[in-house]
Every structure is written in C-alpha cells, then in structure tokens.
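User: Before I run my own analysis I want an independent prediction to cross-check against. Here's the chain; please return only the structure tokens and, at the end, one sentence I can use as a sanity check.
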Amino acid sequence: MNQDINQEIHNAHEVIKEGGLILYPTDTIWGIGCDATNPEAVAKLYKLKQRVETQSMICLMNGEKMMYNVFKEIPEVAWQIMDLSENPTTLILDNPRNVAPNLIAPDKTLAIRIVKDPFCFKLLERMKKPLVSTSANISGQPTPKSFKEISPVILKGVDYVVNLHRDQISGKPSTIIKLTNDSQVKVIRK
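Assistant: Structure tokens:
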C-alpha cells in the first residue's frame, strides 16, 4: 500500500505544479483540488464546478507552519477547537494572505482545515503550500458519497484522478465554524 500512496502523491503533485486539477479522497468526501496559490488553477476549478467565484472553497493545510504563512493572526480558540474536535472541522478565519485572491471570500475570510489523513498530509508536505478542496460535484448537485457517484463531467474535467480508496463510502462533509479575530464563534454547518 505504501508504495501506491507515494506514487499517487508524486503523480498528483506533478499535475498540481503545472496548475492542473486533481480529484482525490480527503478526510471527509472526494474532493477536487488545486494549488491554492495559483489563481488560474482556482479559476479553472470554479469553471468546472460551474460555481460563482463569490462562493468560497476550503483550503487544506497540514499544520501550524502553513497556517501562520496564510494568517498573521489566529485566534487562540482556533487551536482549542481543532484539539477538541472529534470530526474533521473547517474553520473560517479573517484576513488570509499568500493564497490566490479568487479564493478569498468577499468578507476577507478563508475556510481552512488541517488534515491528518496520510494522502492529503503527505501531498501537502510535498507541495509546501495549501491545497484547495471542494466537493466533487457541479454546483447545486448532490455531493457524491462514494467515488462511483462522481459525475462523468467531473471525471473528464480534472487532469488527474487519484487511484486510492475508490471503493470507500465517504464520511460526511466537515463541520464548519466561523471565527473572527475579535473571538466571535459561529457554527455554519454542523
């Protein structure tokens, strides 16, 4: 298995480096991803999903160092929530930088999640930058619960499909919590 995962990380990274889109298993559901610092790649992703650019997408990160590269200030409560969460939890934080401008929401926030699953974690380690993650469906369509539910349009529209966990049924999308720098906490999706 380990050799497979390393090969898949290599293949996915090669595509991402060139500004391509990948379809990959995350810690929650199958996602479409690209380099979060590349505005052209992000625009391509919006186009594939037929999604308006004001609907933001999530950035996956693999730890504190990457978080501080994107956010100068991180509210203390963010770390507490991440430590205490049993399920994958996405945080929406204020004033991101060092990511593609078309990823940042109109209210100057960015949704991020720290991932621990081996594929995403190691891919991020190789990329050294955040990875966009958005559900593998056309905007407004239901979110696929397994690989075989992913629409042919999406499969054809990405540059690489990761060959791991294709027979697994996905978990549910992450919990989403919005945190402001003045420490307000709001649950957006349970």
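Sanity check: The helical segments are 2-17, 39-49, 64-70, 76-84, 118-127, 152-157.
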